[in-house]
Automatic annotation (TrEMBL), chains A, B:
Family annotation (CDD domains): DHQS
Record's cofactor remark: Binds 1 divalent metal cation per subunit. Can use either Co(2+) or Zn(2+).
SUPFAM superfamilies for the chain: Dehydroquinate synthase-like (SSF56796)
Organism (species): Denitromonas halophila
Gene Ontology biological process terms, A to Z: amino acid biosynthetic process; aromatic amino acid family biosynthetic process; chorismate biosynthetic process
Cofactor(s) listed: Co(2+); Zn(2+); NAD(+)
Pathway(s) per entry: Metabolic intermediate biosynthesis; chorismate biosynthesis; chorismate from D-erythrose 4-phosphate and phosphoenolpyruvate: step 2/7
PANTHER family for the chain: 3-DEHYDROQUINATE SYNTHASE, 3-DEHYDROQUINATE SYNTHASE, CHLOROPLASTIC
Keywords attached to this entry: Amino-acid biosynthesis, Aromatic amino acid biosynthesis, Cobalt, Cytoplasm, Lyase, Metal-binding, NAD, Nucleotide-binding, Zinc
Example of a GO MF term: 3-dehydroquinate synthase activity
Lineage: Bacteria, Pseudomonadati, Pseudomonadota, Betaproteobacteria, Rhodocyclales
Family stated for the protein in its record: Belongs to the sugar phosphate cyclases superfamily. Dehydroquinate synthase family.
Protein name according to UniProt: 3-dehydroquinate synthase
Annotated ranges, domain 3-dehydroquinate synthase C-terminal: 181-324
Enzyme Commission number(s) of this protein: 4.2.3.4
Length: 362, 362
């Protein structure tokens, strides 16, 4: 078992990574300071892991109840969030309650936002069950729901008390979701950790084969990178924006295709290729490093071309992104593998040309 | 113009109090660090003060747009909140936006919660237009909406950049609402400021006559008291609970009658009499101080008796209150005028008897 601490002053918390951490009653008992917990999960994860979690809680001597949401990004909205509030209020859960999110990013985002806002904030624990959520949502405290006019538009920053990232639960993860998770893993190499990028080049096959030690290493290094960034910039005023490499393009893909058609990680994969292409064309990323970037994304089984929505439609969708500041599109681009920077003055025509070059043929 | 600073470290902010502060373009320009603002108001306040606010913004050189909500506590729900999000997204408001709440407590709570959660948090300014919101919502950063199963159940702590409390806008406030605001003013005297209670006894008629200097003094001393409490306990873990004097009883009255039938301040007035009665019967508050308490609440034109819902119904509704911790009802009671304390071991039969003694006859 590996342990990483996210350093955020009095909001610091541990992430435990490894096979079987879902069974560690001691870790849960240490993190829960309330007499009751309410588990939030979904109808895909509940049959697989809810019994194991409740057995752990029982061993820890903690009373629990659970709310099972429908699975999928399409349900990451106010109506579904409200079913959590309904259950908490109907069950007379007061402020002395810890929410436990058991599931992927959607469950984590919704349970986290419910915890951030139920009675103005109660503690919560994240038990991410997808690679994407283990490396991404575990660190940073971002919680949100979608609005019909935009993804993650309504949310809050709310840090968990504990994160349990069990590599064994990844054995039931569909291949497509495993690959989608690797997009965010590769991102950490690209934006700030060239040695990790090298390691990924030599371990990508083990990761695709779900080798538990390789997975634990990738999760730990991803979380460590994100943790360092978040510690410097908890509420995303500065350096944290680097985490959006590929995401502004990616959000346009997700929104343009309809949320849920492309997985988030798939859209980020194609989005990172767009960012790398633009970086190379602007003369910032060398052709060799550009080719390594695209090759690793391809080897991870991720799409390297976006859907052909047309550059104009991409730009329109990108203008709605949260990363827009005072009307200017801010893009994370690469100077080198492991060296990213934010640019807000790239000519629109150049952005459009890079998008066109990175889309599927008609 | 009086100026008070709420000391919360990097979240500190000023409250400006006095006649005409709504016109101070300089104060607004100093507090707004974004190119655009979105004003949230309601259909009662907009015809009275929206033009004055937009004129002030124009003088400050700040672009604005506005969202007009329907008036009333009945609209403090997700559906109305969503109209704010709809307008912000449709108007392409990004994170470089300041929300300005122009209205009473309902507008402030909803605009504040919208600001706390829109794109995970944007800055906001409070311009409270009722006495209640000037002395209560101005300080503390509490924001919320109601849930069908409970008042203020969904919310966040989010501090404003600036509060403008203009005593002149109180001239258009209905008498009933002015009196309701005085309930919270009296509360500050009761829980921690005996000198302010004395001052209120000698100035209550001037306050009811809307004397601007008396109002400014009452607002400033109320905000100063609340500010000291909130600085000690920003997220309501300890001493801040004293602010709930009369509120647990009062919430039961509001919920039991249907929200909006009794004004919040009216329910708090009757609730403070219940708390004082219980305090006197437990032998903590002297009969003389008890009588002074009831007399001042009565002179302020507030109800001193609650509706006859039956003690059992009161207790049931009180059990739903957020102030319940781990299943125990925590009540703020008085040792003396200016000296309140939290009790969680008062026998239920004694609470019930005090409620029965303080309800209207059948």
């Amino acid at each position: 078992m590996r342990k990483l601490t996210v350093a955020l002053g009095e909001r610091s918390y541990p992430i435990l990574i490894g096979e079987g951490v879902l069974d560690s009653a001691d870790a849960i008992a240490a993190a829960v300071n309330t007499p009751r917990v309410a588990i939030v999960t979904n109808d895909v994860v509940a049959p697989l892991y809810l019994d194991r979690l409740t057995a752990t809680l029982a061993r820890a001597g903690i009373a629990y109840d659970s709310v099972v949401l429908p699975d999928g990004e399409a349900h990451k909205n106010w109506q579904t969030l409200n079913t959590i509030f309904d259950a908490l209020l109907a069950g007379h859960f007061d402020r002395s309650t810890t929410l436990v999110a058991l599931g992927g990013g959607v469950v984590g985002d919704m349970a986290g936002f419910a915890a951030a806002t139920y009675q103005r904030g109660i503690p919560f624990i994240q038990i991410p069950t997808t690679l994407l959520s283990q490396v991404d949502s575990s660190v940073g405290g971002k919680t949100a729901i979608n609005h019909p006019l935009g993804k993650n538009m309504i949310g809050a920053f709310h840090q968990p008390q504990l994160v349990l990232a069990d590599t064994a639960v990844l054995n039931t993860l569909p291949d497509r979701e495993l690959k989608a998770g690797l997009a965010e893993v590769i991102k950490y190499g690209l934006i700030r950790d060239p040695a990790f990028f090298d390691w990924l080049e030599s371990h990508i096959d083990k990761l695709l084969g779900r080798d538990p030690l390789a997975l634990a290493e990738a999760i730990e290094r991803s979380c460590a990178n994100k943790s360092q960034i978040v510690s410097e910039d908890e509420t995303e005023r500065g350096v944290r924006a680097l985490l959006n490499l590929g995401h502004t393009f990616g959000h346009a893909i997700e929104a343009g295709m309809g949320f849920g058609v492309w997985l988030h990680g798939e859209a980020v994969g194609a989005g990172m290729v767009m960012a790398a292409t633009l970086s190379q064309r602007q003369g910032w990323l060398s052709m060799q490093q550009y080719e390594r970037t695209v090759a690793l994304i391809a080897r991870a089984g991720l799409p390297v071309l976006g859907p052909r929505l047309g550059a104009a439609r991409y730009l329109e969708l990108m203008a709605h992104d949260k990363k827009v500041e005072a009307g200017r599109l801010r893009l994370v681009l690469l100077r080198d593998i492991g060296d990213a920077e934010i640019f807000s003055d790239v000519p629109t025509a150049d952005i459009a040309a890079a998008i066109d070059a990175c889309c599927e043929s008609a």
